[in-house]
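Give me structure tokens for this 276-residue protein.
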Amino acid sequence: MKDNLDNKINNLKNYLLEKERVTIAFSGGVDSSFLLKFANEILKKENVLGVFVNTKLQNEAEKERVYKLAKDNEFNLEVIDLDPFELKEFKENSKERCYYCKSFIFESILKLANSKGFYTVLDGTNYDDINEYRPGVRALKEMKIESPLRDFKFTKKDIRKSSKALGLFTAEIESSPCLATRVPYGIEITPMVLSKVDKCEVFLRVRGYKGLRVRAHENLARIELKTEDIEKFILNDRESTVEFFKRMGFDFVTLDLAGYQKGSFDNLDGDNEDGQ
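Here you go.
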């Protein structure tokens, strides 16, 4: 019998009731926002702890969204300030980067959760994620982090539909993986390059482009846009973009004619990490 959304919702409800008290790693994205909101609907507020890990890997708009969601929905939110650049393995940026980063982040979440008596820690990994290259998932398994949206087969489509029913504006937002995914493996990640990428992506978004990435190949910026936006970009925004990107410190600016590709660095050898 094919799973339907009502069954998934009921399974998630029963799971939460059985757990009684939970901590949820909260990023302000589609998945974790739904999970945190739903848990607050099912359990009393004092039984749900949201934890946001504040790093240089999120842009300011994402951070503002976290605080807005917490305020609007009266979430019980704790904030941890962390610096992944303390990790040599993160800065070196191998294909295992996400494993080391997730281990670092969730070690802090677990420590905080346990100190407050919330011993079950959940994350927002969904069912679609099982088909992607995600070394960070291995870290979550090792640390016994639970992923009920994945386990109860919630797809991204399910989560968006359920989020809309709960009145969450995140039902319509784009996916936003961390800024480190904009740097090819093997090239050292620095706060400066992530800041440059962030400012360049903001520049394009305020001009109406969605579903975009700016990939930083050292002194070259490679822009990925939706294929239907390429003509508009060339006609209207090419010159101003080149000028701005060079002002940000890139020597060369290119447009990828293949368009936006999820996980384009990983796809070089057939893999895909974290919805890059």
